[in-house]
Every structure is written in C-alpha cells, then in structure tokens.
Amino acid sequence: MPAKAAVGALVTICAQQKRHKPYPGMTPAALDIAPLGDLAAQWRRIVGDQMPAAAAADLYGGRAFGLARDAAAQAPCRLYVISAGLGLVDGETHSPAYGLTISPNTSESLQDRVEGRFAADLWFEEMLSGPYSTDWETVFERGPGEILVALTRPYAEMVGPSLAQLSQRHLDRLRVFGAGLKPALPEPLHDTIAPYDDRLDTIFPGTRSDFAQRAMVHYVEHIARSGAERNAVNRLVLAALAPIETRVRIVRQGANDIDLLALIRSRLGPKASASRLLRQLRDDDGIACEQGRFARLFRQAQAGETLQ
Questions:
Q1: Which residues form the domain of 281?
Q2: Least enclosed by CB within 10 Å: which of 77, 256, 289, 292?
Q3: Cα 303 to chain center, whole Å?
Q4: Whether residue 127 is found in the same domain as residue 180
C-alpha cells in the first residue's frame, strides 16, 4: 500500500447518471438564448438561488464515479468533481440537483442555448466562479501529495486550458489519467499524463468510459509513492503493464440511428435478445454502438417506432 501522504486530492468528472432528479428550472431549458458569457451569468444566478440536495460526492451514480469515490476513500484524500453545471466542486460541498451537459444532441445540452460560438473551456472558466465551485489553486494548496485527475477527451478539452495555467510547482504534482488525452490537452500538460494503455483492461477489466477511473484506482493501490518524482512513478506504471501483451483494438464503423433501427428490426424475433443482437452487431457486422444507445433503439424496434 502507498504511503497515506502520497495522494493529496483526487479529481474526477461528473456523471450523466444522477442520484437526484434536477430541480425544476435547473436545466438549460430555463435559460434564454444568449452569448456564452451572458448565458453563464444566467446559469450562475439560477444555481445560486437553489437549495442544496446532497454533497457533491453523493449526487452522481454509475461505475466510473463510484470507482473514483472508492479510490479517494482508499487513498485516503479529498474528492473533487468537475461539473459542467457547477464548476470544480469539493465532494463534501452540498450542491443542488441539476441537469446540464456540454455534449450536443441531448435534452440537457447547453449548446442549444448558446448564441454564436460555443467553447467548452470558456464555459468552464465561467463556472469556476460559480457559487459552489472552488478553483485549481485551492485544490493544490490544501496540502501535500499528488493531485490525481481522471478525464475523458471532452472533459480534457473543457478543463485543459485552466489546468495549464497552473504554476510549474503545481504541475509537477499533477497526474492525469485517461485514454487518448494528449491531442485534447495543452502541451504543458502532456508530461502529466500517466502512461496507462489498453493493457490495463487485462489487469482491471472495464469499459472505455471508466478507463480513467480504473487507471486511477490502480495507481492509488499499486503505484503512488510519497515524495516520488514523476519519472519514477511512470516507470512503475510501465513496469506493471510490461508483462501484459498489448491487445489489438478492433476498429468498428459508425452508423446512424435510422440504419441501426432498420437493421435491428430485420433481426427481431420472438426470442430476440438485446445483448445477443448487440454482440452480433459489433462482432459480425463491425458496427460501433454504445450499449445505452442500442438499448434505446432495441426498445423502439420492439414497439414498432420509426425515425425520420
């Protein structure tokens, strides 16, 4: 086990799955269409008027978030949450229930309310001054130890510019976890990325969506060392992965909902199974489809619904 002072704080992204339903008016539908800065001011006022629902660490569900929460308890250290709706939130801060995402094409998408160009990093900068948010400097200044940050590529694009503004002494303590993050992060952060790759799936199985949190758990359990410098701990990561043969990642093609629905409908039968059809779609047809998306289309096919 690593020394308890090895990790100073753990930061993870929020989750679409939430344990509390959004309060009325706590979605982008309550916002007037406006330029990004004005939209952010509207949202901060709305957030500030709401009563907290729960500690931020208890707002979210899903495996990835649960892994991060468990890692923080094991370290042990303080947990922070990166949220498009609340900013950078201490896990112990009681926060309101909301429904807002920077992702397009969802009912809670912020992008539908933005007049002009939307930039995720500028939005996050605005949220850092929100009523429930702290800032990166505070996370680093609260105590010694490495600061571990789990990111997906969209969140890396959102928070990367603000992270890159940190002083070198803070960047030296930063460890970033995630798959394929280098193109999404500013150059000063490239050396902070822990060198985990697909071999992690052999020693800690999971999905692409929880890769960053799995890597972070492995790091907390096996790698983190009090006072160790970055190159030394990176060598430990690579040593842990070295005995594992690199797996060939299968590249699958995308397909739109209309084509997928027609394909699913053509294969429906009295004993049709969503899991078997999804496996067939991926393995035999070479088509990429996220499990939740397939489940929705499968239900629509069973109900005889059509898409325009």
A1: 257-303
A2: 256
A3: 32
A4: yes
